[in-house]
């Protein structure tokens, strides 16, 4: 069966779907994207993701392509047409639309352009040990507004490729001037430091407000589990008891090796294991809600 995409109001087989060569997303990276995890055919943290989409669009002075309720119907229809009833991902991208190439916004407003695609993914993991990965450190070369989920991802691409070249799965980014860790190339980053404190960086323009990160924090607070927000250095990270990442595509995933060296004993730690269980319950609860 052909994959079906939503492109500017039409549902089309992906092999026939296209965007105009003067779409500002293609020409200038002038756009925003969002990804939502689907579990058992239902969206996980949908409101968080749509809220972040709306915020990112506002930050670059773009309107929502349609009201949230209408957008949700489009997302559901893309799922239906692609027959995704188990686990999957829905990708949406909104750009400033089609206009003659010029760095400034079009003098005459043009309709925003929107694309939605979906794909199946492997079932939600049951065994956290099987998900453990290695990572490398890499300088954070991104722009000054990483809190906006823009389609400008070249620095992230280069970081992920550096990880792949080293036989690792993710790159942990750090500020070269300060030696402070920010986040990963495509995920949020956490540590359990040498004193046993669960830590992740505070939100500002330097990192993306991860939806899975936010959902996990809400679960931690509900469970009475303490965590600390703030900067930490590469040295603190290297001395950590545990390290892990979070994202809509990785959930809670342990990192057991960094730059070729084991994190602590090189095994999944007890805190990461517990948080994986907590987040698994959160995902299953989301799947229990009616679409």
From TrEMBL:
Keyword line: Amino-acid biosynthesis, Aminotransferase, Branched-chain amino acid biosynthesis, Transferase
GO molecular function: D-alanine-2-oxoglutarate aminotransferase activity
Highest taxon of the lineage: Bacteria
E.C. number: 2.6.1.42
Reactions that this protein is recorded to catalyse: L-leucine + 2-oxoglutarate = 4-methyl-2-oxopentanoate + L-glutamate; L-valine + 2-oxoglutarate = 3-methyl-2-oxobutanoate + L-glutamate; L-isoleucine + 2-oxoglutarate = (S)-3-methyl-2-oxopentanoate + L-glutamate
EC class: transferase
Protein name in UniProt: Probable branched-chain-amino-acid aminotransferase
Organismal lineage: Bacteria, Pseudomonadati, Pseudomonadota, Alphaproteobacteria, Acetobacterales
């Amino acid at each position: 069966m052909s994959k079906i995409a939503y492109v500017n109001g039409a549902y089309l087989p992906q092999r026939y779907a296209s965007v105009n060569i003067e779409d500002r997303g293609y020409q200038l990276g002038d756009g925003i994207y969002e990804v939502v995890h689907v579990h058992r055919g239902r969206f996980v943290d949908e409101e968080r993701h749509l809220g972040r989409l709306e915020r990112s669009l506002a930050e670059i002075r773009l309107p929502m392509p349609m009201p949230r309720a209408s957008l949700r119907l489009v997302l559901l229809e893309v799922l239906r047409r692609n027959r995704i009833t188990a686990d999957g991902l829905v990708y949406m991208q909104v750009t400033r639309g089609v206009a003659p190439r010029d760095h400034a916004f079009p003098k005459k407003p043009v309709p925003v352009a929107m694309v939605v695609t979906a794909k199946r993914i492997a079932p939600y993991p049951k065994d956290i040990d099987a998900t453990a990965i290695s990572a490398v450190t890499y300088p954070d070369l991104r722009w000054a507004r990483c809190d906006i989920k823009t389609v400008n991802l070249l620095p992230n691409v280069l970081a992920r490729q550096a990880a792949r070249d080293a036989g690792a799965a993710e790159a942990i980014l750090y500020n070269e001037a300060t030696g402070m860790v920010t986040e990963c190339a495509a995920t949020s980053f956490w540590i359990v430091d040498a004193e046993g404190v669960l830590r992740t960086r505070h939100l500002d323009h330097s990192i993306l407000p991860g939806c899975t990160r936010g959902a996990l924090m809400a679960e931690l607070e509900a469970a009475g589990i303490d965590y600390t927000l703030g900067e930490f250095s590469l040295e603190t990270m290297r001395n950590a008891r545990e390290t892990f990442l979070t994202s809509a595509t990785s959930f809670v995933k342990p990192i057991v090796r960094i730059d070729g060296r084991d994190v602590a004993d090189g095994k999944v730690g007890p805190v990461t294991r517990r948080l994986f269980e907590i987040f698994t319950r959160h995902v299953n609860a989301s799947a229990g809600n009616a679409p």
